[in-house]
Amino acid sequence: MVKLQRTAAFLLTIISYAAATLDLPGNYSASSRPNEDGVADVVNVSIELLSIRGVSETKSEMTVDITMHTSWVDARLLEQVTRDTFFVGHIPSIWIPSVQIANSESGSHASNKALLLGKDGLVKFSQKLTTQISCPISLAKYPFDRQACRLQLNSFGYTSVHMVLVWHGTINGDIPTYHPEFSFSYAEQTSENIKTGDGEYSNLFLEVAVSRCPLRVIFRAMLPSILLLAFSYYVTFCHCNFIMINKAAPSANGHHVEETMVAQRVIECTTPDAERSLIIAAINGLIFIVIIFVAQMNFIDSPKSSAVSGLDVWLSFITAIVFVVLWHSVQLYFTQSNKKSSDKINPNDSCYVNKTTNMLKIGIPVVFVIFFVVYCGVYLS
Ligand SMILES: *[C@@H]1O[C@H](CO)[C@@H](O)[C@H](O)[C@H]1NC(C)=O
Ligand SMILES: *[C@@H]1O[C@H](CO)[C@@H](O)[C@H](O)[C@H]1NC(C)=O
């Protein structure tokens, strides 16, 4: 019974919507604005950001679903309805401000429209739009980038002398983003009058920003590269072993000071022999090839841009260091094998290699730490 009543009420509502026709005064003109000869008409605009459908780096655009609410007062429609009247679908042919999205890529597609006319001449018009906003996509900070796109609203044809657009209300909080890598960051509303050749136009801007989640790239490129570098460094520079040696240590025994033998752990570092340095050089060569492979796979997979991205800088740096280590280990191998084959050891060669080894051993971690700090400062800010 209750269900039947509800259905009936629902049907009545639909009928009343469908029957809501407006008898406009004979001298009403839909092509002239409410204050035709007077001050500028003020149109309140509010945007409901429903979702961010997608971000395309290649097309430099963002697709958004919005509902645009505009409201204004049309004094000519005063007392035209006895109560607030809702029109859905069939919009009466009254004056509606031509608010357009100026930077829409392929025109916006309006799917639903609704209009509310008040007894006091207040008109509220809402339409749901799906639109592509074109915006500059900058990948210089990829994968730590944030893309901000500005939706520009203005009135087509009416200069600010005739029509002024005003933001009404603020953007709702968290917006769903249907892009696997991006999430909503912020939305900012601003307004500005822009002068053009044929006058000054009232513009509203809505900046929508999305930020990329860098985790996928970190796990797939940055972390493997850093582990490979660490392995290469370890293999090349850490030939130190903990060994136990017996060492004489003074010990006080009554009035006498005696020397006793004490087992001590010391770190002994050696220069690898020829065979070992060949293995080291081979391992470094392999690591170098793997790192080049990782870098190439990521360059292929990352969005194309002419800018040098954060990922490019990272991978190039790590590749360069691994190359230096490889170069050094090859040099080490040649020095060691010369040492083996000839009885005469060229002291200059050996000295050079040892000096370089020590320099790189300290230099690489220092350079890496400096690079890491600068990198974080530049790309994570
Ligand atoms: C239209 O007609 C009404 C009276 O019928 C009058 O009050 C109003 O001023 C007219 N409006 C215009 C724009 O001529
Ligand atoms: C426009 O918004 C202002 C507040 O921002 C409000 O006072 C005014 O009544 C609104 N006008 C219309 C036509 O909705």
UniProtKB/TrEMBL annotation:
<dbReference type="InterPro" id="IPR018000">
    <property type="entry name" value="Neurotransmitter_ion_chnl_CS"/>
</dbReference>
<comment type="similarity">
    <text>Belongs to the ligand-gated ion channel (TC 1.A.9) family.</text>
</comment>
<keyword id="KW-0472">Membrane</keyword>
<keyword id="KW-0406">Ion transport</keyword>
<keyword id="KW-0407">Ion channel</keyword>
<dbReference type="Pfam" id="PF02931">
    <property type="entry name" value="Neur_chan_LBD"/>
</dbReference>
<keyword id="KW-0732">Signal</keyword>
<feature type="signal peptide">
    <location>
        <begin position="1"/>
        <end position="20"/>
    </location>
</feature>
<feature type="transmembrane region" description="Helical">
    <location>
        <begin position="278"/>
        <end position="299"/>
    </location>
</feature>
<keyword id="KW-1133">Transmembrane helix</keyword>
<dbReference type="InterPro" id="IPR006201">
    <property type="entry name" value="Neur_channel"/>
</dbReference>
<dbReference type="InterPro" id="IPR036734">
    <property type="entry name" value="Neur_chan_lig-bd_sf"/>
</dbReference>
<keyword id="KW-0813">Transport</keyword>
<feature type="domain" description="Neurotransmitter-gated ion-channel ligand-binding">
    <location>
        <begin position="23"/>
        <end position="204"/>
    </location>
</feature>
<feature type="transmembrane region" description="Helical">
    <location>
        <begin position="311"/>
        <end position="334"/>
    </location>
</feature>
<protein>
    <recommendedName>
        <fullName>Neurotransmitter-gated ion-channel ligand-binding domain-containing protein</fullName>
    </recommendedName>
</protein>
<feature type="transmembrane region" description="Helical">
    <location>
        <begin position="217"/>
        <end position="237"/>
    </location>
</feature>
<dbReference type="InterPro" id="IPR038050">
    <property type="entry name" value="Neuro_actylchol_rec"/>
</dbReference>
<keyword id="KW-0812">Transmembrane</keyword>
<feature type="transmembrane region" description="Helical">
    <location>
        <begin position="362"/>
        <end position="380"/>
    </location>
</feature>
<dbReference type="InterPro" id="IPR006202">
    <property type="entry name" value="Neur_chan_lig-bd"/>
</dbReference>
